[in-house]
Write a structure and sequence with these properties.
Distance between the termini: 32 Å
CATH class of the largest domain: Alpha Beta
CATH superfamily of the largest domain: Response regulator
Number of strands: 14
Shape: elongated
Oligomer: single chain
Order of helices and strands: EHEHEHEHEHEEEEHEHHEEEE
Number of helices: 8
Strand content: 25-35%
Largest sheet: 5 strands, parallel
Amino acid sequence: MPHTPRLAILDQDREFAAGVRRELNPLGWRCSALDGVPSMWALARMRVHAILLDTEALGEEPLAWIARTVEELPQMRIVVCARASTLDERVAALRVGAEDWIVKPCDPTEAIARVEGAIRGPQHVGPIPEARPLVAGEVTISPAYRQAFAHGVSARLTAKEFSLLHLLAREQGHVVERARAYVHIWGYPMVRRDRSVDVHVRRIRGKLRRISPGWNYIHTHHQVGYCFRATREITGGAAEAIGTSVAA
């Protein structure tokens, strides 16, 4: 769970919305009650992790709004809490991207639990890996120092740059989607067409090239994300891939 979860409520039942907010106050959540259907831009600027809504508040085409919101803000969770619904409506909403559907009347504590589960996502129980350095090509990525080094020289990464590099390096060989990287670094959903991840990758590349010239570490997968793989530039334009290892 985020350190401070942020929730928006879109519901014409003011008593129910007030009940949810009362239950959230002692939990340290930030909660905003919306007076009307927000634009995508306004919703994105609120930087909420989830929205709890009644489809009656969305007007005549609630499924279209849910589908568009899922497309524009893919990391924001949508939980529906509605009184009037059919099985087909509930199934359709889940298929277009809603995380959950609760049938009213329901207790605010149940609604909050459903939202919390949607934000948390699937949980996998397992041991926490040791934060050992990762070695790739000429670069050592050190979680202890939160820095990358090559030949004893620091890349001078910022906190966000290191977090992004470490995320990519831990999943070397696999593409990390931009939206997932954004949530990992900034802690809230990415606005569609936000280029913050791309800007940070460009800076990381420049800093790694300064301390390890002749090597490429972060590779772009167009319209998807980035993949960490140490490759050495060879005369003639070819490249040799070198795997990442965990330092002893």
